[in-house]
Design a protein that fits this description.
5-stranded antiparallel β-sheet; single chain; 5 strands
């Protein structure tokens, strides 16, 4: 399990264990704040480094080391 804190996710770098759409290296470009202030953070936007394609994922997915590895490997 990757040790990740939601407040420190912005601009972190990630490597997909299995390529996603022929992309392997990603960066967190946006932490999407919840609409209600008392609600916990749910979503981040990651962007593929080479293609620039962005997608939204649940930030807790990044904790799964079988899917994501922290840093660019």
């Amino acid at each position: 399990m990757n040790a990740v804190h939601p407040k420190k996710l912005l601009l972190t770098k990630w490597t997909a264990a299995q390529p996603v759409g022929r992309q392997k290296h990603f960066i967190v470009v946006k932490v999407i704040a919840p609409e209600l202030p008392d609600t916990k953070l749910e979503w981040v936007e990651i962007e593929a480094v080479h293609s620039g394609v962005a997608r939204r994922i649940g930030w807790r997915e990044l904790r799964n080391s079988a899917v994501w590895r922290q840093g660019w490997l």
